[in-house]
């Protein structure tokens, strides 16, 4: 594996969250009955004329500016010609040699080290329809028939094309994650890969370490999650290296990622640009955005994830890894800051969010917004653990209950009987019993064997059924033994 270097570039398609489609007034909606959001324009009827969606143009400019791109003074729509059932016009309105945004970059972090990935272009196009192949596998080759839904045809789509700057599947995963977080912060798309509003194709090749010439590129499709992207690239990297070592010739092709089998299979030979016979769209004039308008969009950009992470380190004292985990997602960051405003210590709140809360979300495959947990819950939970009302393990039990029920922290503590006993008089009586029952360990402790205190604390905890506050128990024991510091 170390004899070869991996070269990866990604092509990411982002469906924009506009109210209407790119070139007509049909509404943009996910999950509605098939072919209910269509009209003569998005179905490509003769004599109809497309009219660009101004909000979509604003959104692509926002994306380009956030990614450090140059906003072209003049960009042109083109017709990308191909014949497929999901394209009612038999061509797609896209951009070719004059895209809206060029020469950007996106910073990613791998094991604490920052890498900059170049972005070749960000261009505008319209989405295609959706074809469902009915059959045992859902693949076109095994289908009995196909159903086409044109609701998605014409939805504003932005394609972000990276430079081949990534050298591992892990870097590709970090890039897609950072891009998704940036788009979410811009509020231009809901970036839900499971619903197709964020889609990614991976271009991967391998070459001997130290050589400048690129290897034979393969494009991988059908990756519906960030994890799928990483797994597909890992598989394809190993497949290509094994083929080269076996003396086989790699071919430039498009391959399909099979999630169930965790492998790629060949789909078709890779098309070149000339295969699509691009030519300028005659019905849409060039886009020439006014510099003042672009400047206004620049000034209106929200705080982006990288800037937010730096601020969390500076203002809240979070270590870089913790700031990265909390600040990347807009929703998670807002939740965290609200909990801090309500009194939760920042570092403690961040640790709960990135450990126990994150573990629950990962296990249930839910988003934070889908749980019953609120910033008030988190602030109250942290306070209850910090002031000794409940133990850390009790806090975990409370959190698990609140995530699903949304009940107040105090109510859950009471219902589950998790409140710790901290009354020194009550604990003093039990401590005296433990001291009397364990003369040997007591003498060891008084003789300087400090570790024995843990045994004595454990005996008190046992007698109280685990309800005693361990910190207070230790203080009481030391006082009773005459060794309280």
CA-based shape: elongated
How many H/I helical runs?
Answer: 15
Unreliably modeled segments: none
Major β-sheet, in short?
9 strands, mixed
Q: What integer is the average pLDDT?
A: 89
Based on helices, strands and strand pairing, what is the structural class? alpha+beta
Give the tally of β-strands: 14
The domain count comes to 3
Brief summary of the model shown:
The protein is built from 15 helices and 14 strands. The protein is an alpha+beta fold and 485 residues long. Helix 9 (375-386) packs antiparallel against helix 10 (392-405).
Detailed description of the structure:
The chain is of the alpha+beta class and 485 residues long. The strands form three sheets. The protein has a nine-stranded mixed sheet with strand order 2-5-6-9-1-10-11-12-13. It has three domains: 4-296, no CATH class; 303-416, no CATH class; 424-480, Arc Repressor Mutant, subunit A. β11 (218-223), α3 (226-245) and β12 form a beta-alpha-beta unit. It has helices at 54-66, 169-186, 226-245, 291-299, 305-316, 320-327, 330-341, 346-364, 375-386, 392-405, 409-416, 424-437, 439-446, 452-463, 470-480; strands at 4-15, 70-71, 77-81, 91-95, 101-110, 113-126, 130-134, 145-149, 156-162, 198-208, 218-223, 253-258, 263-269, 279-280. α12 (424-437) packs across α14 (452-463). The chain has 15 helices and 14 strands. Helices cover 39% and strands 20% of the residues. It starts with a strand and ends in a 5-residue tail after the last helix.
């Amino acid at each position: 594996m170390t004899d070869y270097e991996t070269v990866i570039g990604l092509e990411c398609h982002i469906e924009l969250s506009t109210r209407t489609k790119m070139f007509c007034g049909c509404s943009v909606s996910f999950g509605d009955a098939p072919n209910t959001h269509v009209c003569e324009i998005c179905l490509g009827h003769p004599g109809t004329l497309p009219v660009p969606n101004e909000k979509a143009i604003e959104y692509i400019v926002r994306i380009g500016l956030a990614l450090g791109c140059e906003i072209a003074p003049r960009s042109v729509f083109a017709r990308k010609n191909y014949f497929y059932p999901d394209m009612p016009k038999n061509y797609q309105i896209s951009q070719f040699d004059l895209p809206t945004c060029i020469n950007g970059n996106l910073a990613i972090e791998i094991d604490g080290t920052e890498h900059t990935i170049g972005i070749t272009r960000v261009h505008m196009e319209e989405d295609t329809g959706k074809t469902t192949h009915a059959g045992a596998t859902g693949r076109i080759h095994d289908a009995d028939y196909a159903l086409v839904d044109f609701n998605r045809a014409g939805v504003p789509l932005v394609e972000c094309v990276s430079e081949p700057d990534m050298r591992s599947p892990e870097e590709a995963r970090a890039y897609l994650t950072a891009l998704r977080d940036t788009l979410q912060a811009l509020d231009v798309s809901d970036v839900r890969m499971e619903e197709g509003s964020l889609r990614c194709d991976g271009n991967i090749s391998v070459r001997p370490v130290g050589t400048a010439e690129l290897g034979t590129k393969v494009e991988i499709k059908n990756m519906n999650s960030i994890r799928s992207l990483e797994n597909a690239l890992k598989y394809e990297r190993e497949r290509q290296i094994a083929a080269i070592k076996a003396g086989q010739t790699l071919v430039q092709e498009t391959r399909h990622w099979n999630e169930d089998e965790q492998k790629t299979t060949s789909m078709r030979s890779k098309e070149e640009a000339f295969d699509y016979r691009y030519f300028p769209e005659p019905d849409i004039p060039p886009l020439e955005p006014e510099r003042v308008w672009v400047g206004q969009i620049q000034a209106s950009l929200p705080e982006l994830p990288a800037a937010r992470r730096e601020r969390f380190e500076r203002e809240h004292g979070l270590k870089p890894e913790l700031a990265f985990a909390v600040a990347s997602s807009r929703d998670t960051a807002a939740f965290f800051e609200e909990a801090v405003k309500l009194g939760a210590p920042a570092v403690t709140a961040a640790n709960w969010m990135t450990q126990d809360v994150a573990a629950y979300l990962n296990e249930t495959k839910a988003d934070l917004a889908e749980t019953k947990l609120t910033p008030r819950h988190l602030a109250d939970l942290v306070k209850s653990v910090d002031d000794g009302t409940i133990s850390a393990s009790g806090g975990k039990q409370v959190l698990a209950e609140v995530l699903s029920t949304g009940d107040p922290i105090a109510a859950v503590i009471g219902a589950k009987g998790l409140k710790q006993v901290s009354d020194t008089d009550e604990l003093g009586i039990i401590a005296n019993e433990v001291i009397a029952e364990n003369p040997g360990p007591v003498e060891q402790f008084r003789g300087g064997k400090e570790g024995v205190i843990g045994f004595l604390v454990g005996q008190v905890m046992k007698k109280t059924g685990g309800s005693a506050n361990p910190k207070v128990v230790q203080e009481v024991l030391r006082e009773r033994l005459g060794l309280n510091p």
